[in-house]
Amino acid sequence: MHPRQRAFGARHGRLLALCTGTLLALGACGQAMSRPTGTNTPASGITPSPDGERASSVAPSAASTSQPTPTPTATSTATARPTAAPAPTPSPAPPGTRNKFLWPFASTSIWNMPVGSGAVYVPAHIAPPTAKTLISDQDIIIMDPSAPLTLLVHSGGGWGGNRCTASGSALISAPIPTGFVVPSNGHNNALAVLMPDGQTVVQGQPFARCSAGGPATLLALAPSDNLYGDGILGAHGGSGLSSLGGTIRLNELVPGGEIRHALKVNLDAATDLYPSPGFRWPAIRHDSCAPGCYGGSVPALEMGSLLAIPTSVNISALGLETAPARMLAWTLQNYGAYVADNTAQSAFSIETEDSPNGSVVTQFQQTWGFPFQAQAGNGTPWSHDINVILSNLAVVANNGPASIGGGGSPVQPLAPPIGN
């Protein structure tokens, strides 16, 4: 447990107050962000995703261009915790639109806006990880508004105790499938759960539900959001960014899939994040241990920074050996990734979905035949590829509320309208 994790309870404890026995979330919301009017004209020289179309279970993007589908390596056996049967997706989107349950938020949201032709790049100089090259920070995503209402109760377990033990009053009731279980662990487990109205997303952290049909727990609620809104704020403790936006979803990082949205990533603040002021838009805060625990040397690289592979880089010439790395590189060049949290170890982390429908980490292992987590060094093709990607990342220095992605013409068409 690192200092940011220990401080989470104190930081988010300020978001909670007892009122006649009921625990209320009082989290501060950020200012309303203005968004530019996008254009559907891609910049020249930017190619479509190198690894094919979005999987059939995800609404196709208007920007999709058919490409050869990679052949996955032989699948090895993955160990996964049991999950409930897949929850149905209500009200599928018609052709030519996107499904809000799979691809949420406004087309001009930070998560859906492509990098712009006016982007100004500053080399990020991310330190090569020495503990693990890549790990996953799994976001708990529950998009089944018709599921039984389940009580969410405050637990002080946080990152060092037993999250299965409720230690406070009820927070809220939310739709969670009966069989969905998330054990107590040390992960961030940022929650995004869709309410019965089909629009409101309740967020909080860290989530646990230790028995099927039982109550669930959170340390604290975060600002709620709306699937049709900008999707900026949420429960990621180091930045205040969304639990839902930027997460790699099921059927995106697979053969025939594609990721047409920005990602969320975590860096080792001790080596990578600049200490002062320590955060920038769209983040609304930094770790409570900052500036003392931040030791980066690039002033542009802070909590909330948008990272991207510059459009001047030919990603086909990077020597990437694995298909999923080529998919990630394409997304990072065309949409980028927002720094959302601190790994507090020498490792690079990407936020991925864990839900009643399954886990991206498990799906990755079953699909590609090797684990999502990559050991330090270049001992495997996957580790090698992640290190190559990290060495090519830059900060989009002029990313801001009036110039999302750096402004100018988006290098990819905007996301199609939500159809449900």
Characterization of this structure:
This protein has 420 residues and is an alpha+beta fold. The protein is built from five helices and 17 strands. The strands form three sheets. Strands 3, 4, 7, 8, 10, 11, 12, 13, 14, 15, 16 and 17 form a twelve-stranded mixed beta sheet that branches. A three-stranded mixed beta sheet has the order 6-5-9, with no helix packed on it. Strand 1 and strand 2 form a beta hairpin. Helix 3 packs parallel to helix 5. The longest helix has 12 residues. The protein is globular, with a radius of gyration of 20 Å. It starts with a helix and ends in a 24-residue tail after the last strand. The N terminus is likely disordered.
